[in-house]
Design goal:
Number of domains of chain A: 2
CATH architecture of the largest domain in chain A: Alpha-Beta Complex
Number of strands of chain A: 17
CATH superfamily of the largest domain in chain A: Naphthalene 1,2-dioxygenase Alpha Subunit, Chain A, domain 1
Distance between the termini of chain A: 26 Å
Number of helices of chain A: 5
Oligomer: homotrimer
Largest sheet of chain A: 7 strands, antiparallel
Structural class of chain A: alpha+beta
Strand order of the largest sheet of chain A: 11-17-16-15-14-13-12
CATH topology of the largest domain in chain A: Naphthalene 1,2-dioxygenase Alpha Subunit, Chain A, domain 1
Helix content of chain A: 10-25%
Strand content of chain A: 25-35%
CATH class of the largest domain in chain A: Alpha Beta
Radius of gyration of chain A: 23 Å
Chain lengths: ~350, ~350, ~350
């Protein structure tokens, strides 16, 4: 499929890249990542120019990489610099190299013209480095289109159903005695979309109750900002007379293929920052993995399989889908500006626009 | 592929449908089945109109079903009757609903114009309710075209080879000292085909010997009737001076896809009906599962894989294939009458007609 | 794809063919092999002419085979000779039969016009029967094109990288203090290609050191001869003042499909022939399986997957690839002479020719 261009793709956690080469497909391109002796992160096409063996099966030598099939060596620009048993190297022995930035605990990859790769355009995640807060990082692998997974994170209203018994609120169901009220606000600024959803006077699911540190009703706020290709900045707050706890999160979706996605996440809290009382980093890891892998991903993958089965049926938007609607509209404009066809996935969802 | 139209498709055992929704694909259509609070069985398109999540992951509420992703609720007509946080429901929020009849221990589904759904056309299986007999039900899942599996059940001559050491007869092999005689009779009446095969003076395999209740040679009779789309009514009798035991069976084939099939079966006996002496229900379950899953299904699936490998080779019919031949001929006429193209599977098999 | 014609395809080890039928696909054709009562090896199309059940699920009767679905019997010419319960057999009940030669411990199959099947054209492997030597046979299954696997065996230079820590030599790496010298010689004679590679004064990996029977530097020689479709005769020698040990090997590649291969091998040694001291047959089996299944096949399969991902990128040949280059050139000429299109796999690799 057509992927968004001229953007940095979050491709790995910093901790994933070592001197053992890592094979990872980004936007259908097979890429080998490794950290050279100098600490520099390198991203090359994952093939030896000689006989197409994956370089990811090779060995790092300084900042270079040696193919383990016949010993050809490539430097970090993608040029072959050594062929065993011969003095010269054919000029055509060259593979693609990709610009990389390491920042905020992630590896960001540029797939377009290297001359246009501006490190200042990497999304801004300063709270990951704030000494008063404490960050935990995740990578999840999802068998669904990256837009479907992003939509899940933008559509906060699902927390009251899919996450009812974990991190959601206990409200919104048909026939329920409703005392809660919901405020929504959505605002587009250039290529960014801002959204606030605030639920007043709500009881929380058991995990969210522990985060809030209060079992009384709270005001639960989600403040979100989306930017291309699919980074969702989210600030989650629980507030009442007893408490005010905040979590900064980024949900960053990177296409592996049209139907598989890397979902990166950082979960940055302003409570339990001593990592001794609840929650410790390990609590956060366990809880988030349970929710994302046990509730979100199975649903999004089921949705993808159903879309594949039913073909191009059109979604029927709800009033609460305003944020997704605005984001899809923005994405369509980005494709149009670049004279690119809008991917099928965004055409199907585009009908949500009318509900905006 | 093209499936037979204007017929009731056996889709589930009655016992399979509860207030936990069941996802099942019938004729390539993903359908959710559930039993509402009233006891009514409901069959809906298995997708939420909002964002295409499978309703089969949802929760039954009365006779309605709630999507567990965002809480939309659908009634048994397929109309959306509730959207969280809004007073009105978009008219377009609607999915298909299918007529259903629960009868003879099965759920029968109608995929065509509901106005034409006549419950009187459900196949007639009265022995399943006869107090003097005792019924055991089965569902087998087969990775082959439903016609191939049906052909297996119509072609009784395979019992002497494939089931030689279980439920078959010990006769018919090359070089065997033959004292048996076989009578065949085939008769077409409208869209139904009748067939009788009688083997005289035959020894039986060990399991069939136990059913017969006699280790002496018997007359073994199969009396069969086929009706569309692929229900095979079968009466199996073992008779000699010592014994006369009878089994009423229905073998009912429903397409899941062009190469996968639900095979429903009821096995109704006039012996061991106290469920204390041999055979108990558990004996029947164990024996049938061993024969169908250990002998029939592996062969039919191997046949399907071979047909896929060899492409359109034509079958060479035998004299004993008269019943299949007549059924295929009838099915071709049904397709022709409906102005539908004959499925490839029936074209390949159609050459059997000349042997009829 | 198009496979080489008018050649004998090595299809099984002699020991694999018994009176239990064996299903094996050769060049995309499903074939059943069995050994009749007379000891004769039979190769038939693996389908019953009646209803396309695989005959490989059947039973051998004398030199004939009985289908286990409905009891049809076929003789070794592919003619049906018995249909249960009828006196005559339809003339059209006939399947293909293939010429077979059993020689040198292998079963060789002819897929073209039987009139052209000349047993004298089976590759010549006399050392497998030399009483002074001792042979061990192997069959490996590879998920890659047969040419890719053959290239691995023809390209001896990979032993210094892929097999560095097992059967290779400890030499050739960038920055290594080189005292070794490599001689190459390549010679084309008609449709055969001869090649010698000799590494002087080299240290060996641990397994090769055990074969050589000397831990001092040796001269390591590989003398190879290739013939169509893809049989590689190889003589491996280790020699210094202490030792001179020799292994005769054949590597024989047979296409299962365009992306799967049977790799047959015989490993014939002139040392340890009493099968008591090192190496015993069991040592050979364990060592070769570890190297081929742990080092060669994973690399060739990774190469195949990469070629599938990257599409038609062209290889950049090295000076040491002279043998592969000459073989591909010869194969292209064989296809051209037969007025057949050159397979994609050989087009991609054909650029190696320029380096020859």
């Amino acid at each position: 499929m057509e992927y968004p261009q001229l953007v940095w793709y979050c491709s790995a956690l910093s901790t994933e890249i070592t001197d053992t080469p890592l094979a990872r497909m980004i936007c259908e391109k097979p890429i080998v990542f490794y950290r050279g002796k100098s600490g520099k992160v390198v991203a090359l096409e994952d093939r030896c120019a000689h006989r197409q063996a994956p370089l990811s099966l090779g060995r790092v030598q300084g900042d270079d990489i040696e193919c383990s099939y016949h010993g050809f060596v490539f430097d970090c620009s993608g040029a072959c610099v050594y062929v065993p048993r011969q003095d010269t190297v054919p000029k055509s022995a060259r593979i693609a190299s990709y610009p990389v930035v390491e920042r905020w605990g992630y590896i960001w990859l540029w797939l377009d013209d290297p001359a246009k790769a501006d490190p200042n355009c990497v999304p801004h995640l300063p709270w990951t480095e704030d000494k008063a807060l404490r960050a935990v990082y995740f990578r999840f692998d999802v068998n669904a289109n990256f837009q479907l997974m992003a939509d899940n994170l933008m559509d906060v209203s699902h927390t009251e159903f899919l996450h009812r018994t974990s991190i959601g609120s206990q409200t919104g169901r048909r026939g329920q005695d409703e005392e809660t009220k919901v405020d929504l606000d959505c605002r587009v600024e250039g290529d960014r979309v801002h959204f606030v959803r605030r639920v007043h006077n709500t009881l929380l699911g058991p995990v969210a109750t522990k985060w809030a540190g209060s079992s009384k009703p709270v005001t639960r706020s989600n403040t979100l900002m989306w930017e291309a290709p699919n980074t969702i900045h989210s600030v989650l707050e629980f507030q009442n007379e007893e408490t005010h706890n905040t979590v900064h999160m980024e949900h960053i979706m990177t296409p592996r293929t049209a139907t598989s996605t890397f979902y990166f996440m950082n979960w940055v809290r302003d409570f339990g920052t001593d990592n001794v009382g609840y929650p410790t980093d390990e609590d956060v890891r366990r809880e988030q993995t349970a929710v994302v892998c046990g509730e979100d991903i199975p649903m999004v993958e089921a949705q993808q399989r159903n879309i594949d089965l039913f073909g191009m049926v059109q979604d029927v938007p709800a009033r609460q889908d305003r944020f997704i609607t605005a984001v899809h509209h923005t994405l369509r404009q980005i494709y149009a500006k670049a004279d690119k066809p809008v991917p099928a996935e965004l055409q199907r969802l585009a009908v949500l626009r009318q509900a905006g």
